[in-house]
Amino acid sequence: MNKAIIITGTPGTGKTTISQLLSTHGYEVHEVGKIVKEKHLYTLYDDEMECYVVDDDLLTPVLVELIENNSSPVPIILDGHVMMVPSEYIYHCIVLRCSIKTLRTRLEEREYKPSKIEENVEAEIMEVILTEMLESYGEENVSIVYTDKTEERSCNDVLNFIKGRKERKEEDSTC
Ligand SMILES: Nc1ncnc2c1ncn2[C@@H]1O[C@H](COP(=O)(O)OP(=O)(O)O)[C@@H](O)[C@H]1O
Ligand SMILES: [Mg+2]
User: Fold this and answer.
1) CA of 15 to the centre of ligand 1 (A)
2) CB of 78 within 8 A of CB of 6?
3) Is the CB of 143 under 6 A from ligand 1?
4) Is the CB of 151 under 6 A from ligand 1?
5) Which residue's CA lies nearest to atom 12 of ligand 1?
6) 16 CA to centre of ligand 2 in angstroms
7) First-to-last CA distance in the chain?
8) pLDDT in tens, the chain (175 residues)
9) 145 strand-pairing partners
10) What domains lie within the chain, and their CATH numbers?
């Protein structure tokens, strides 16, 4: 299927953990951050934020190619917080969220420096990624899953949204 499910959210909300669990349910998973680094799809390294600044002009065609080359009957999973995929390739978009307390603890455990923790906490409070996804793909294509619960429960929530999406699409095609 030439479509992708985007698993996105502020760093620390659980994208990679949930995506890895989804891979045990038969989904092919691609970690976008890894692709960016391996293929040098960035404009520069931001020393202040200690991260790469993605070059969308380079990244988007690479992601589109991955989606177009997918020959399996299920969509591929794209795990990442910075990517622009044209809406015609989107099967569904899941935005992971968690409480600020949880997010702060996870980022501290990751030993991010305080300014980077605050930047990410602020982005979560301001709903930066959620707003971007809603603007890009529309309410009907975006679901929110909270990760303050167990990993398995969050993964089940994601699977239920994917299943619901599939059922809605099947209904669409019958009328
Ligand atoms: N329900 C949950 N869903 C996802 N991650 C969880 C959950 N509960 C606890 N965690 C923990 O939160 C951390 C999330 O990290 P990670 O998956 O790398 O986030 P991201 O990829 O969004 O930066 C992991 O240490 C994971 O074990
Ligand atoms: Mg990750």
Assistant:
1) 7
2) yes
3) no
4) yes
5) 14
6) 4
7) 22
8) 899 999 999 999 999 999 999 999 999 999 999 999 999 999 999 998 888 999 999 999 999 999 999 999 999 999 999 899 999 999 999 999 999 999 999 999 999 999 999 999 999 999 999 999 999 999 999 999 999 999 999 999 999 999 998 788 788 777 6
9) 96
10) 4-155 (3.40.50.300)
Q: How far is the CA of 19 from the centre of ligand 2 (A)?
A: 9
The two three-digit tokens of residue 69, written as one number: 């080359």
Could you list the beta-strand ranges (E) of the chain. 4-8, 29-31, 42-46, 51-54, 76-79, 90-97, 142-146
Question: Can you tell me which atom of ligand 1 is nearest the CA of 149?
Answer: 1
Rounded (10°) CA dihedral 9, 18, 57, 123: 10
3-state SS assignment for residue 51: strand
Q: For a pocket test of ligand 1, which of 13, 17, 98 has the largest count of ligand atoms closer than 8 A to its C-beta?
A: 17
| Cα 129–Cα 135–Cα 140 angle in degrees, nearest 5 | 100
Give yes or no for residue 75 CB within 6 A of ligand 1.
no
